[in-house]
Amino acid sequence: MATSCGGSKANVRKDETNAATTPAVVEVTTAPAIVRELPRFFEATGSLTGDEQTDVSPSMAGKVVFVGVDLGSYVKRGQTIVRLDDVDSKLRVQQAQAQLEQAKAGLRQAEEKVGIRPGQSFDINKLPEVANARVALDLAEKNLRRSEKLIESGDISRSLYDQQKAQRDQLKEQYEAALSLARQNHAAVMTARANVANAESQLNLARRNLSYANVYSPIDGYVADRPADLGEYVSTTTKVATVVRINPLRTTSAWPDRNFSGRIARISPNVTPTSRTLTVEAEIENGSGVLKPGQFATVRILESRASAATLVPARAVRTESGVSRVFVIKDGHVQERLVQLGQTEGDLVELKSGVAAGENVATSNVEQLSDGMAVKQ
User: Fold this and answer.
1) How many CB atoms lie within 10 A of CB 105?
2) Suppose 336 and one of 19, 38, 255, 371 were both cysteines; which one would form an S-S bond, judging by CB atoms 3.0 to 4.6 Å apart?
């Protein structure tokens, strides 16, 4: 009986040892790898840039007496950013206005001298002095021609003829003098009109320079920089603000949990020699302003054709140290497969290699699995 009891204890210890060395069976759920037509994307990274950005500088030099915006302010096109001291500009406008009034007075005087109304065209033959001199000359010409016939017939004396000829010559000189004076007066009118036009130009120029005292935003957007301060003296080369328009932006989503759609707007015709890259710009709507210039973005450009892809649930993939693997379940055992991942489609991920369509992959407890392990479903 002693021998019999010793043998029973040895068998118990042997069974315990076998149980300890037998690996535990892991319960898993599985899903088949499926094939589906996927729209293909070209994926690249880039940065968000404003649709338009401008550095605002004044058109005249002066001291800043008013600042209307601050960093981050939203401005409309035509809104005042800063205003410069305009006292000197206002004085120049008043001076130009006075010079214009003086020129207009000179023009009125010259036109009255000639006898034409403002805006009336000039006809030298309609001037009273010229017209009267022409009538007297024409009458003297007729009398002289009549006297020439009478002197041939002996009806008048030579002295009377010579008297009429001298009178005709005198009237002719008076007519030519009237023409010359009229031309001089007309030249004075034209000079006066030119003076008025020049004074008007000077007044418009002074008014334009006065308008330069207000520095306006050329576009709608946000103030990205505003280096000008109250009391600072600025010149035409000084930047007083930078305005950037952020709707639309020139790329796509910079938010990992949100997608933004857009369209390809511009493609550079040249490849950058240093980086051997081609620049492509896309525009997206950014009405809410959640996207900001300078953010990085992942861009997915839809290709024209779809292609077949092998897909498995994303939870079936275990990635460690940059290496991805899935676990194919076949005949109750695990086959570990190294895979190359492709694009995602919802909660599915594409496997470019390692698994064939229809094979079942583990979708639970994948962190406990290893090659050759027994599992149950």
Assistant:
1) 12
2) 371
Fold classification of 23-38+307-376 is 2.40.420
**Structural tokens at position 267:** 């493609």
Tokens describing residue 10:
């040895």
Strand arrangement of the beta sheet that strand 214-216 belongs to = 214-216, 80-84, 62-67, 233-234
The pTM assigned to this predicted structure is 0.47
pLDDT at 12: 46
What are the residue boundaries of the structural domains of the chain, listed by start? Answer: 23-38+307-376, 46-50+244-304, 88-211
Q: Give the list of residues 6+ apart from residue 195 with CB closer than 8 angstroms, or none.
A: 103, 106, 107
d(CA 147, CA 165) in angstroms, rounded, equals: 9
- 364/368 Cα distance (integer angstroms): 9
Rounded CA gap, 375 and 63, in Å?
A: 82
Contacts of residue 72, Cβ cutoff 8 Å, sequence gap at least 6: 222, 223
Phi/psi of residue 96, each to 5°? -65, -35
Within the chain, which residues score under 50 in pLDDT? 1-20, 252-256
Q: Where are the beta strands (DSSP E) in 85-220?
A: 214-216
